[in-house]
Automatic annotation (TrEMBL):
It comes from the Eukaryota. Residues 10-112 form the MRH domain. This is GNPTG phosphotransferase. Keywords: Disulfide bond, Signal, Transferase. The keyword Transferase applies. It comes from Thryothorus ludovicianus (Carolina wren). InterPro entries: DMAP1-bd, Gtb1-like, Man6P_isomerase_rcpt-bd_dom_sf, MRH_dom, OS9-like_dom. SUPFAM superfamilies: Mannose 6-phosphate receptor domain. GO terms for molecular function: transferase activity. GO terms for cellular component: Golgi apparatus. Residues 117-220 form the DMAP1-binding domain.
Amino acid sequence: GPAHLFRLAGQCFSFVESTYKYEFCPFHNVTQHEQTFRWNAYSGILGIWHEWEIDNNTFVGMWMREGDSCETKSRQTKVHLVCGKSNKLAYVSEPSTCVYSLTFETPLVCHPHSLLVYPTLTEALQRKWDEAEQLLYDELITDQGYKKILKEIFEEAGLLKATEENEVEKQSRKITLEFETMEKCIKEYKQLSEEIKKLRILLGQHDIAYKGNSAGNTSVEYISHQLTTA
């Protein structure tokens, strides 16, 4: 993210609302402490530093996720960054159950260019962004395709966390590349066939029935029971 905001790291800012005290520690976490004498007064984590909130190619906030459990999910907090005369936590709300909203004022974001994403990227990612801009201008990609490329750039830069679906997609793409030639495909096929034979022998040793299609496995040299055991 923006390097000039890193000076906030290691500091914490408090805000008291009714009987609750909230504490925001940039790039670390958000906590809540109930200021009562009840025996079971709540004190816990509302979120741990996770990723940026980016809108219109600008940093607009920080997401603190994976806080203490709350029924079937974890508590999470979005911290909005707004211009202010001093660094302070100005407002806290809970727009939906266990999802909190904090407003943090700081003079560090008052300059109109202080929260632009592009300058924080490496030259390679900036070039990738430039190419996407050109493709969009030439109408070779749709607006949706452009946004998808930007999201990939932000994830690669570590500004956003890749979703589980994206990770699966990347792995699928990697596997596809591994089988891009007939030679690689045959090699992988032979290795997998050998693994199947080993597993079938192992199942046989434990009197476990095997059901599967063994068509085509005859092309691979048979591994003896003795070798498999070894």
